[in-house]
């Protein structure tokens, strides 16, 4: 199937997204965005040792800060997916999150980390102000095989546009701990190759 991963997963619902979000998510090619996150990171100190391990894999990070400069680079993959590298510029050094979005059986799946070791089906909803994604079933990848696991954490993503700028709000939570990781802020995004 042709079209971006969002176009494939949303189908006709793509037309209901506000501009310029519709243009950004329907782009098949590369794109770059830069901005500042009002907040980014882990609010629970007890989780930081685990997040240090996940940071090595490009899944999450243990840092927390405000007014964090941010860069996102999207690159199409040979199999029709979209590879994303997000760089958070903390005073102590950069933290990088990587993932690849692919459409599997008509559903958007997010393969997290440099090695795509965690797979999450994302459930998409289009609203007047933008796109809402929330996590569904999850798998741990062992080579090419996905092993279904109980939900490790719930993820919600709200992607909107206000006054021409993209706003993103990503939250991770678990029933016992509540919300424990979040990044939220705004950025400008342009379709095109990284310089």
Automatic annotation (TrEMBL):
Residue span, DUF4166 domain: 18-187
One Pfam family, short name: DUF4166
Protein's recorded name: DUF4166 domain-containing protein
Species for this entry: Leifsonia shinshuensis
């Amino acid at each position: 199937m042709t079209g971006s991963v969002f176009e494939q997963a949303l189908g006709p619902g793509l037309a209901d997204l506000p501009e310029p979000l519709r243009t950004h998510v329907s782009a098949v090619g590369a794109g770059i965005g830069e901005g500042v996150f009002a907040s980014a990171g882990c609010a629970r100190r007890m989780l930081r040792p685990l997040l240090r391990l996940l940071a090595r894999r490009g899944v999450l990070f243990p840092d927390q800060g405000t007014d964090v400069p941010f860069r996102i680079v999207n690159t199409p993959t040979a199999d029709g997916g979209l590879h994303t590298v997000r760089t958070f510029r903390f005073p102590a050094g950069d933290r990088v999150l990587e993932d690849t979005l692919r459409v599997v059986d008509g559903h958007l799946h997010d393969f997290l980390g440099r090695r795509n070791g965690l797979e999450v089906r994302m459930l998409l909803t289009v609203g007047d102000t933008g796109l809402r994604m929330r996590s569904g079933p999850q798998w741990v990848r062992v080579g090419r095989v996905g092993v279904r696991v109980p939900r490790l954490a719930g993820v919600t993503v709200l992607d909107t546009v206000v006054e021409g700028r993209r706003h993103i709000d990503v939250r991770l939570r678990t029933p016992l701990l509540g919300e424990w990781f979040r990044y939220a802020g705004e950025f400008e995004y342009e379709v095109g190759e990284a310089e």
